[in-house]
Amino acid sequence: MEKLSLPKNKIKVLLLENIHKNAIELFKRNGYGSVELVGEALDAEALKKKIKNVHILGIRSRTKLTKDVLQAAEKLMTVGCFCIGTNQVDLLTAKRMGIPVFNAPYSNTRSVAELVIAEIIMLFRGVPQRSWGAHEGEWDKSVKGAREIRGKVLGIVGYGHIGTQLSVIAEAMGMQVRFYDVIEKLAIGNAQACRSLDELLAIADVVTMHVPETPETKNMMNAAKLKKMKKGSYLINAARGTVVDIPCLAEMLKSGHIAGAALDVFPKEPSGPEEKFKSPLQGMRNVILTPHIGGSTEEAQVNIGAEVAEKLVKYSDNGSTLGAVNFVEASLPIQANVTRFMHIHRDEPGVMAKILQVFSRRNINIAGQYLRTDGEIGYVVTDVSGKIEMGADIRKELSEIPGTVRARFLL
């Protein structure tokens, strides 16, 4: 008797970019024997060949899953981004292909928050300039430009997972925290919300960006906004490279309006160590430049490996899409003595009726059914009583329903 649409030992898992080994261990512990780890990102052509027969794909930020690449993946059923961001994936194409994409929005928040705190302290103490000078033989021991962060105003733009954790740490160190978010958020501790970005920029001694990459946030910190920052303040960007207009920031730094900056993300980042990094900010002594290392700590990678791999296993094993960034979310119970059928389809009238007819014609009792739609894609999970011998036949008939994107079944 066939126990799955595809038995676990035939499900091919590919993990790129040196994803932490605990992800491999989690897959194998759950019965997935065909797991391959590649230590680097692949270019588009190599990637298309590599993922042609892959069912589960894990990537980090350097792998680009474009529409063209995704359409070459004939068997791909889910993608895991072992990082916070998902802008490296064409999420709409993935959704239309019935491919849920998962990420790790929580696992490296502490790592990013700690880096930002370190950068705040270094900027206020003038460490970048003094370090540079010491390397060149200078010995600047003066107190000029060296200040404590206690009592200073930290302005957080984007009060999400990282922003709120940063808020707690900064307040514990004596800073006054102000934040701005387009969505109304409950303040933590003594933090206070600002009614507008302009209000925050005018009062903050240091501004740190923690917003996603969207059309609305592109060049969010442009010339006009940078001019509205408090004279002599600092800017930190550990969000997305497109959030800050780099040439404008360079001009503001040269003019002295902004006293210093720290950036961990850039509009164009090298695809690998062999490609040279270039930025208008290079050579400025009051600027800290780091190569997108905000979440790159051993602890974060361990947490990310476990978090994303677990989501991928849950989806493959029981159809749960909780945590998917491009797909309707369904948290599904684990039920005994049932056969589970999963059906992804275009959200069109009549599909549900046809699905029910497949089971009613066979006089099969439905033990539970879960449906979620988003106006474009529908996802229905049907649990039927008992172990169904003709599961493959039913799956085939479900797959032939007009509007079907993909169908699977599990025992």
Helix content: 25-40%
Oligomeric state as shown: single chain
* CATH level-1 class of the largest domain: Alpha Beta
Shape: elongated
Please report the total strand number as a whole number: 16
Biggest sheet overview = 7 strands, parallel
Strands side by side in the biggest sheet: 8-7-6-9-10-11-12
Q: How many independent structural domains?
A: 3
CATH topology of the largest domain: Rossmann fold
Tally of DSSP helical segments: 13
Q: Could you give the order of the helices and strands?
A: EHEHEHEHEHHEHEEHEHEHEEHEHEEHE
**Mean pLDDT metric:** 93
Report on the architecture of this protein.
This protein is an alpha/beta fold. It has three domains: 133 residues, 3-Layer(aba) Sandwich (Rossmann fold), CATH 3.40.50; 181 residues, Rossmann fold (3-Layer(aba) Sandwich), CATH 3.40.50.720; 78 residues, Alpha-Beta Plaits. Helices cover 31% and strands 20% of the residues. The protein is built from 13 helices and 16 strands. The strands form three sheets. A seven-stranded parallel β-sheet has the order 8-7-6-9-10-11-12, with helices on both faces. Strand 4, helix 4 and strand 5 form a beta-alpha-beta unit. Helix 1 packs parallel to helix 11 and helix 5 packs across helix 7. The longest helix is centred in the last third of the chain and has 21 residues. The protein is elongated, with a radius of gyration of 25 Å. It starts with 11 loop residues before the first strand and ends with a strand.
